[in-house]
Specification:
Helix content: 10-25%
Largest sheet: 8 strands, mixed
Low-confidence stretches: 95-190
Number of helices: 13
Mean pLDDT: 78
Structural class: alpha+beta
Distance between the termini: 72 Å
Number of strands: 36
Length: about 700
C-alpha cells in the first residue's frame, strides 16, 4: 500500500497477478480475500485478477521488468541503498517528457473482448528521498497498477505517509500507448444561459448566470458517432472556465487534479473506437438539444434520434428512453448515475435518459494532450468515470444521458478519520450566497456489521461557529466509538431536505505488506494498529464519553447564543445580518428608539424593510428624523402590535430576545428559525406592512 504514497494518490483500478493477500481462491470465479475487500471498499478502487497463464494481460509490466532485469541488474555491485539509488539514477539518466516508453512498441487495444486497463498514476515522480525517509525496508518489488489516481481516505494516507517510502526502482511506466487521431479546442468566454424553455428552467431552477456543460463518451457508428455516456450539467459559471480536473481541484479535492496537466475548458478528442469531449453550450444550443430530446423520446422504449451539432462536438446518434422520476445523484455513493457526475464534485438533481446498455466503450488507456498524458481520459476530459466490464450492472456507469443541475447550497467535500480513532472529520462546503452555515444539519451514523451502534444529529447552529470565516468551507470533528466501525455522514438543511451523503466508509486500521526480493519472501511488515479491537466494556465507556463530549459541545455553543454582554451581542447580530440573502425584513416594536439602532443595518447587502412601534423623540416629544439609506424603508405605528423581535431574509431568519437598545441589560437568546417559521412570519409581516395604521418613518 505504500505504492499509493509513492504515486501520490489511489488508482481507480488495480490489476493483481493472483497474489494470496488479494485473491483467496481462483476457480471459475475469483474469490477475493475478505480483508482485501475491506481495503478496496475503503480506498474505493476497482480490482481485476489476471487470468492464469495469460501473460499478455500484463505484458506492459512484464516488459518493464524484463527491461530492468536485463539492462540494470546484471553485474551491479552496491554496498548500501543510497549507493543503489545513485547507480540507478545514473543508469536511467534524464528523461524527456515526450520520450516513448522503454518497455515495448506502441500497441492498440480493440474494443471487443475484455479490456485490461493499465496506466500509471498522474502524479509526477517524486524526488529521491533521503535514507532516513526510507527506513530499513527492502528496496525492490513488483507491482501492477492501473488507471489514474483519486483522493485516498485521510486515515490510510497518514498511515502510508508514516511508513517507509517505496524505492524509486519500484514502478516507472505502465500502460499501453494509443494513437490520438485528432484534437480540437473551442475557446472564448462561457456564455450565460439567459432564458431557457420554461419546463427546463422550472425543473432545475437554472440561474441566469449558470453555464451548461455538455460532455460525452461516444463510440463509432456507421454514419459517424453514437452516444454511449453523456451529461448536460448546469453548473456555476466559473466551472465553464476550467477543465474538469481543474474544477475538481478548486472544489477542495485533496489530491485530485493537482498533478494533472492543465487542459483547455473545452476539448473534443477522437481516436480509434472512441470519442471524448467537453464543450460549453450557448442558450440556443441548450434549447435545440432539449427540444430534440423531449420531442422524440418516449418512456420505457429506446428511441433513436439524431443529436445536433453542439459547439465543437460533431453530430451523433443516440438511443434514449424517457425518465420517469427526478433523481438526487450523490458523487460519494456508488450508483449507475453517480459515475456521470464524477467531474462535478458535488451532488446534482438530474433526469436520466436511459441508453443502450449493449454498446461497448473502448476507453483509451491513455491520451496525449496539451503536452501531458491523461491516464483516465474519460474522467478528465468528459468528467465521466467509465467503469470496467466486470463491475456489477447495478453500479456500472449508466448508458444514456444525464441532464441535471449542480447543488449550489452545501455539500460534503470529504470525510475521514483524524488518525487517532477518536474523531471522524467531515469537511463541508457551502455557497454563502444561497445558504448559511447555521441553516445546515449534520448526521453521523456509525455501524458495526451493518447494524447501527451510534447516531448523532446536530444542527450546526447549535455549534459554536463564531470563529468560522464565512468563506464556504469548514471542518466538523465528530466523536466516534473508534475502531471496527463504518461511518456515514448525511447533510440536511433545516427543512429536512437531504443535500449530500457520504459513506458508509471504514477507517483503515492496519496494513500488512509482504514482498519478495530475488524470489525470496521478506518478513511481513505491519503498519498501524496491531492490538485487537476494543472490548464491550471499553465501547460502553467510550459511549459515555461521547455523550459527555456532545453535551459539552452543545453547552459551549449555547453560551454563544445566550448573549449577556452588549458589545458581543451587537457584534454577533451585525455579523449575522451582514450575511442576509435577498431582502431583510425587521419586525421589532422597539427598534429605533435610539438612532444608534439603525447602525446595525449599515452592512446589510440588500434592501431592508423595518416595522417598528417606538422611535427616538426630542425634548418636545417630537419624533427625530432618521438618517436612512435609500435601500431602507421603514414604517411606524405607536405601540405596534408586535411582541417578537424578528429578522427575516430569503430562506432564513432569527428571533432575538431583546431589541438593540436593550441588549446588555439582561441576557437574551438568539435563535435561528426554520423555513416553515420564516414563511409564516413573512406572511404576517406583509399583512402588517400593507396596513393603513402604519406610516412612513420621517427621514433626514
Amino acid at each position: 500500500m505504500r505504492a499509493f504514497d509513492w504515486l501520490g494518490g489511489v488508482p481507480r483500478e488495480c490489476v493483481y497477478d493472483n497474489l494470496r493477500s488479494a485473491v483467496a481462491r481462483r476457480e471459475r470465479d475469483v474469490t477475493w480475500n475478505p480483508r482485501f475487500v475491506q481495503l478496496r471498499g475503503h480506498y474505493a478502487f476497482h480490482a481485476t485478477a489476471c487470468t492464469p497463464a495469460t501473460p499478455r494481460e500484463k505484458g506492459a509490466v512484464e516488459g518493464a521488468v524484463r527491461h530492468h532485469k536485463t539492462g540494470f541488474w546484471p553485474a551491479r555491485r552496491f554496498g548500501s541503498l543510497a549507493e543503489l539509488d545513485e547507480l540507478y539514477a545514473g543508469w536511467r539518466g534524464p528523461r524527456r517528457a515526450d520520450a516513448p516508453p522503454r518497455h515495448g512498441p506502441p500497441r492498440r487495444r480493440r474494443a471487443a473482448g475484455r479490456r485490461a486497463r493499465s496506466a500509471a498514476a498522474t502524479a509526477p515522480t517524486p524526488a529521491p528521498k533521503s535514507e532516513s525517509d526510507r527506513g530499513d525496508f527492502p528496496s525492490t518489488c513488483r507491482i501492477l497498477i492501473a488507471s489514474s489516481t483519486d483522493a485516498p481516505r485521510m486515515d490510510a494516507y497518514r498511515l502510508i505517509s508514516q511508513a517507509s517510502r517505496w524505492r524509486q526502482t519500484a514502478v516507472r511506466q505502465l500502460g499501453l500507448w494509443i494513437r490520438c487521431l485528432r484534437g480540437t479546442s473551442a475557446g472564448g468566454q462561457p456564455p450565460t444561459l439567459g432564458a431557457l424553455p420554461t419546463s427546463l428552467a422550472h425543473l432545475f431552477d437554472v440561474a441566469p448566470d449558470d453555464a451548461a456543460v455538455w460532455s460525452v463518451c461516444a463510440v463509432p457508428h456507421s454514419d459517424g458517432w453514437q452516444l454511449l455516456h453523456g451529461s448536460l450539467l448546469f453548473v456555476p459559471a466559473e466551472c465553464a472556465q476550467l477543465s474538469w480536473p481543474d474544477w475538481s481541484a478548486s472544489q477542495g479535492d485533496r489530491l485530485g487534479a493537482e498533478n494533472t496537466p492543465s487542459l483547455p475548458p473545452e476539448l473534443v478528442l477522437d481516436g480509434e473506437g472512441w470519442l471524448l469531449g467537453r464543450v460549453v453550450l450557448t442558450a440556443d444550443e441548450v434549447t435545440r438539444l432539449w427540444e430534440t430530446i423531449t420531442g422524440t423520446v418516449v418512456a420505457d422504449q429506446l428511441t433513436e434520434l439524431q443529436l445536433p451539432v453542439l459547439g465543437a462536438m460533431p453530430p451523433m446518434l443516440a438511443k434514449l428512453s424517457a425518465p420517469n422520476m427526478l433523481m438526487r445523484v450523490f458523487r460519494h455513493i456508488d450508483s449507475r448515475a453517480s459515475s456521470l457526475i464524477t467531474g462535478l464534485y458535488r451532488p446534482a438533481d438530474a433526469l436520466l435518459f436511459e441508453g443502450d446498455p449493449e454498446l461497448a466503450f473502448a476507453e483509451p488507456d491513455r491520451v496525449e494532450v496539451s503536452g501531458g498524458t491523461l491516464f483516465s481520459p474519460a474522467r478528465e476530459l468528459a468528467g465521466i468515470h467509465v467503469t470496467p466490464d466486470y463491475v456489477k450492472p447495478e453500479i456500472a456507469t449508466a448508458a444514456g444521458l444525464l441532464v441535471g443541475r449542480a447543488e449550489r447550497r452545501a455539500w460534503i467535500a470529504d470525510s475521514h478519520g483524524d488518525g487517532t480513532y477518536e474523531h471522524y472529520v467531515a469537511q463541508l462546503r457551502w455557497d454563502p450566497i444561497h445558504i448559511d452555515l447555521d441553516d445546515l444539519e449534520l448526521t453521523h451514523v456509525e455501524r458495526h456489521r451493518r447494524d447501527t451502534v451510534l447516531s448523532a444529529r446536530m444542527q450546526l447552529a447549535d455549534l459554536d461557529a463564531s470563529e468560522v470565516a464565512d468563506l464556504g468551507v469548514c471542518e466538523v470533528n465528530m466523536p466516534t466509538l473508534g475502531r471496527s466501525v463504518t461511518h456515514e455522514v448525511l447533510l440536511h438543511d433545516l427543512s429536512g431536505e437531504l443535500l449530500d451523503r457520504s459513506g458508509p466508509y471504514p477507517i483503515v486500521e492496519r496494513m500488512i505488506m509482504t514482498m519478495k526480493i530475488n524470489g525470496a519472501s521478506a518478513p511481513p511488515v505491519t503498519i498501524g494498529a496491531t492490538d485487537p479491537p476494543p472490548e464491550l466494556e471499553h465501547r460502553l465507556t467510550r459511549r459515555d464519553q461521547i455523550a459527555s463530549e456532545l453535551e459539552d459541545i452543545l453547552h459551549n455553543a449555547a453560551q454563544a447564543r445566550i448573549l449577556a454582554d452588549r458589545q458581543t451581542a451587537l457584534d454577533r447580530l451585525t455579523k449575522m445580518l451582514s450575511r442576509a440573502r435577498g431582502e431583510l425584513l425587521v419586525a421589532d416594536r422597539y427598534f429605533g428608539q435610539s438612532l444608534n439602532d439603525w447602525q446595525i443595518l449599515d452592512d446589510v447587502p440588500g434592501p431592508v424593510r423595518v416595522l417598528t412601534g417606538k422611535l427616538e423623540a426630542d425634548a418636545n416629544k417630537q419624533i427625530v428624523p432618521v438618517p436612512l439609506r435609500p435601500a431602507i424603508q421603514a414604517r411606524y405605528r405607536p405601540k405596534a402590535p408586535i411582541h417578537e423581535r424578528i429578522y427575516l431574509w430569503d430562506g432564513g431568519g432569527l428571533s432575538l430576545g431583546g431589541s438593540p437598545t436593550t441588549l446588555g441589560q439582561s441576557p437574551v437568546r438568539l435563535a435561528r428559525m426554520s423555513p416553515a417559521e420564516v414563511d409564516l412570519w413573512r406572511a404576517q409581516f406583509e399583512t402588517m406592512w400593507a396596513s393603513p395604521h402604519f406610516n412612513e418613518v420621517p427621514r433626514v
